[in-house]
């Protein structure tokens, strides 16, 4: 007897429609497929593009619930690096939980791909370092840690928000402080490996409990790579134990010396920054002002202003114009009728 293929739990293709309450949303980019994901939608009769995030109701990991909690807390404290939560709920006929936010533009990896480059100019990289750290600080201020900091977790907005950076991907976020007494939650003895291997902190490899220092360690790996794509020696290694060894070297005096001898693009100011992150412990309250001061000094030394235009500004508009020109141009193989 042939085994039957399991049908996908949820499939709504591009151009398909979702009925939510009394409104209809058309899928513009992407699709609804599988247990968890996101796509861009537009409410019928309106021009505004929105992002629709979803997960199967049967999913064991309640990511949408966590994302909603983070966004509600961010809105209550007027955080600026997190999207507005516009709608949330369930779609019974598809057995989905969902949330809808303002739409996102290009993520950091998207920008690298669009520009066909491996790393940004030092000006853009330093400003991205500052903006991403400020975003992370905002998350920590509402008593959550991210647990999956990586370039893909940061994206710019659309239209009027196209120069505004947002922190996203809160599906693995976790509260690190109790609501009632504001005390740090006690660490668990062992924790499953979660997150992206390339940027995961050493604690993640050791199956330890994450804290604010681990988000910042992941951020250090990320910003080093934004400056020089070859700065992470483990970037091509698959074995997690070997990756951990390389990370332990990176986060040491020997590793810092090696980093600066081999990677001349890395700013001198990253040296005290890495040393500071090395000193943090599970219960440490990071000195966000100190880290931002280091980043500002690095920018000032190189005459970089936070108001400088990004090297990719106008990229999305140019792509849209190119699409319009392509659509308005006759196919070269098309025969033109004679008069």
Automatic annotation (TrEMBL):
Residues 25-291 form the Protein kinase domain. Residues 304-339 are annotated as: Disordered. SMART domains: S_TKc (SM00220). Residues 329-339 have a biased composition (Polar residues). PROSITE patterns: PROTEIN_KINASE_DOM. Residues 310-319 have a biased composition (Acidic residues). Signal peptide: none annotated. This is Protein kinase domain-containing protein.
């Amino acid at each position: 007897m042939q085994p039957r293929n399991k049908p996908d739990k949820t499939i709504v293709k591009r151009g398909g429609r979702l009925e939510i309450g009394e409104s209809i949303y058309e899928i513009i980019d992407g699709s609804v497929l599988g247990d968890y994901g996101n796509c861009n939608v537009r409410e019928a009769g309106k021009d505004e593009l929105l992002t629709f995030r979803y997960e199967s109701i049967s999913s064991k990991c309640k990511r949408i619930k966590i994302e909603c909690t983070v966004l509600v807390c961010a809105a209550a404290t007027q955080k600026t690096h997190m999207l507005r939560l516009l709608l949330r709920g369930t779609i019974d006929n598809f057995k989905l939980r969902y949330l809808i936010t303002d739409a996102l533009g290009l993520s950091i990896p998207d920008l690298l791909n669009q520009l066909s480059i491996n790393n940004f100019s030092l000006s853009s990289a330093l400003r991205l370092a500052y903006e991403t750290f400020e975003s992370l600080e905002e998350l920590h201020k509402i008593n959550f840690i991210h647990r999956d900091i990586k370039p893909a977790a940061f994206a710019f907005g659309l239209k009027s928000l196209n120069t505004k950076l947002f922190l996203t991907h809160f599906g693995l976020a976790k509260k690190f402080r109790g609501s009632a007494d504001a005390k740090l939650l006690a660490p668990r003895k062992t924790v499953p490996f979660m997150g992206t291997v390339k940027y995961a902190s050493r604690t993640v490899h050791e199956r330890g409990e994450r804290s604010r220092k681990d988000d910042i360690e992941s951020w250090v790996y990320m910003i080093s790579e934004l400056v020089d794509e070859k700065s992470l020696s483990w970037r091509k290694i698959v074995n997690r134990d070997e990756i951990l060894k390389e990370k332990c070297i990176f986060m040491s005096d020997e590793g810092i010396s090696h980093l600066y001898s081999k990677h001349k693009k890395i700013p001198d100011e990253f040296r005290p920054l890495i040393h500071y992150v090395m000193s943090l412990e599970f219960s440490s309250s990071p000195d966000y002002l100190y880290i931002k001061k280091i980043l500002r000094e690095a920018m000032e030394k190189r005459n970089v202003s936070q108001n400088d235009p990004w090297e990719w500004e106008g990229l999305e508009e140019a792509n849209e114009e190119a699409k319009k020109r392509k659509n308005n141009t006759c196919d070269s193989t098309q025969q033109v009728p004679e008069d």
